[in-house]
Amino acid sequence: MSKELLRHGDTTTNTYIDPGAETKEAYEISKKSRTLARTMVGNANDEDRVRQRCSIAVGDFGMADLMRFQRDPVPAALTALGQGAPIITDIRMVEVGIQKKGHTNEVLCALDFGAGIAKEKEITRSSAGFLALREKLAGSIVVIGNAPSALISLCGMVKEGIRPAVIIGAPVGFVNAAESKELLRTMDVPSISTEGTRGGTPVAVAAMNECITIFIERHH
Fold first, then answer.
1. I need a surface site. Which of 32, 42, 120, 135 has the fewest CB within 10 A?
2. Which residue pairs, CB below 8 angstroms and at least 24 apart, start in 193-197?
3. Nearest one of 142, 172, 171, 165 to 154, comparing CA atoms
4. Cβ pair 141, 168 in contact under 8 A
5. pLDDT digits over 164-201, tens only?
6. pTM for the structure as a whole
7. CA-based angle 53:101:148, to the nearest 5?
8. 142 bridge partner residues
9. CA 93 to CA 32: how far, in whole Å?
10. Contact at 8 Å (CB) between 156 and 121?
């Protein structure tokens, strides 16, 4: 990556970095999008930055108004990144989309775990994967962009005392998506979520990648 694309600084001021931009053209496109998003969404704090990034990801500034932040999730994510906590995702698209540069955290996909549990309990593979990863969940960063069933299973484990460092829960759809996120917001754990049926992989990945960008700015 070109050094000019990874300048140190705080993107809430006049500098801007995009660790995912590999070329000057990509960087300029990203910078222009962010400049517009700052104007449309606001730029007061780190939560606004996540709102900006998620709005850009879906091409709709209305997404900013649907974002919900519970119990200071951005600081929790930054701390977990600094501690090398695993990042656990529900589906492959989320795993692939998460920025791998600028941190040393392992990125896991629940689909790689729990095949036997899925067959035995006749539940979704993503739900089974989180059940299989039970011992890794404490202190982890969880990113769910597709599977409401996985988020509901995760909330059940939180009720049992398992505490991820932060949960990004943005499943999309008309079956249990809104309900799963409402449930998440009642949990005693830091979280970023979306209101209603909207969300999806682009939103979940954007929220995680903005936290990673902030982390890179402040630790590199």
1. 135
2. 193/67, 193/68, 193/70, 193/168, 193/169, 194/63, 194/66, 194/67, 194/68, 194/170, 195/66, 195/67, 195/68, 196/66, 197/172, 197/173
3. 142
4. yes
5. 999 999 999 999 999 999 999 999 999 999 999 999 99
6. 0.89
7. 50
8. 88, 167
9. 26
10. no
* CA-based radius of gyration for the chain: 17
Strand order in the sheet with 191-194: 67-70, 191-194, 166-169, 141-144, 87-89, 107-109
pLDDT tens digits, residue range 137-150? 999 999 999 999 99
Which amino acid is residue 167, in one-letter code? Answer: I
The 3-state secondary structure of the chain, one letter per residue = CCHHHCCCCCCCCCCCCCCCCCCHHHHHHHHHHHHHHHHHHCCCCHHHHHHHHHHHHHCCHHHHHHEEEECCHHHHHHHHHHCCCCEEECCHHHHHHCCCCCCCCCEEEHHHCCHHHHHHHCCCHHHHHHHHCHHHHCCCEEEECCCHHHHHHHHHHHHCCCCCCEEEECCCCCCCHHHHHHHHCCCCCCEEEECCCCCCHHHHHHHHHHHHHHHHHHHC
